[in-house]
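Changelog entry: the 3-ketoacyl-CoA synthase record was regenerated in this release. Current contents:
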Amino acid sequence: MAPFAVELFAASMILFMISYVSFWFTKLVFRRGESCYVIDYECYMAPKERKLDTHQCAKIVSRNKNLCIEDHRFLVRTMVNSGLGEETYCPKSIIMGEEEDPKLVDSVSEIEAVFYDTLDRIFARSKILPSQVDILVVNVSLLSAVPSLTSRIVNHYNMRSDIKSFNLSGMGCSASLISVDLVQHLFKAHKKKIAIVVSTESMSSQWYSGRERSMMISNCLFRVGGCSMLLTNDSARKNQAILKLKCLVRTNLASDDEAFHCCKQSEDAQGYKAIYLSKTLKTIAARALTKNLTVLLPQVLPLWEIIRYLLFKSSSKINLKTGINHFCLHPGGRAVIDEVGENLGLNEYDLEPARMTLHRFGNTSSAGLWFQIQQLYLGGHDLRLGSNKCLERYDPKLSSKEDHKPLSGEVRMDQ
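Regenerated structure tokens:
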């Protein structure tokens, strides 16, 4: 029996390797001409007067007359343990004490500041005119305005009448990668095109003034931020590109009731509106990550590591670092980073970009990934072409007045 078992195992390994090579050969042939290049991107930094330090946080909390002493203690503990630093940004209306009476004009002005500041810089730096843009995708989860958000950008920059524009809402922290995925699919049908993706969030109308602790947490984590990206599938422009998208994996768990309700916009019994974050959120995120990795890892890990894991999976974990050099974990909070990092077997060097992004900017929702790529560079990570394979759990240029160095590399994502 032993010799037969050895022969059977050897035959299985040969068939597996043949299938593996055939898969990649077929993918290489059919993916020709379907490249997605990132020419440039710009992350938004709000004015200094909108920084939200500990003193300013305490001032805002003290204005909430609905809170009792235990609520104050809970908020203090949450803020201390959140991982956020002293230089995150808050909407102007909340700094001015108008959080209990949010106005549409405040929400619109908040996101328009992100739109025009980041896009002005991208157009100026890339020398690409707004009239050359063929595709425009905007994702803002918590604001749906009329005229639409894309219409505001088209009108502001006098873009072409045949531009393909899309507004995405309600997608949360995954929205930026969903937008890039949409552009990538559009590129398959439309050749030699230029696309703009704008990812931000409207926080002005979402500050919570009630007492539900599962809804108070959003005040302690979410902050103002955003990013605009310039993409193309025109190979003639690939020398301008700083990144190239290799693959993107998405998992949708909305059919699962527990996942569906773990993060949602809702009202408490007193009618105060905010983002509700359930205690099962980390568990749901881990489940989505597991599903994503089953698809992503065969595309990024070397064959020998996959075989080693299949042979010894009962006694060892798969080594992600054999195929992934850099990791961008969603900076949703210290607990999320800690748990996902531990499950993936990552060290502090790997987690540093996520921790630094959370500390400096807070949870900026869908824009968090792009802030992290700059943190990779600032932390001394090698992002030269061919060395950068980034893992984004959810599914390089930082906006500043100073010059920044160009980066190049390849990105593999899961959302």
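The chain has a mean pLDDT of 83.
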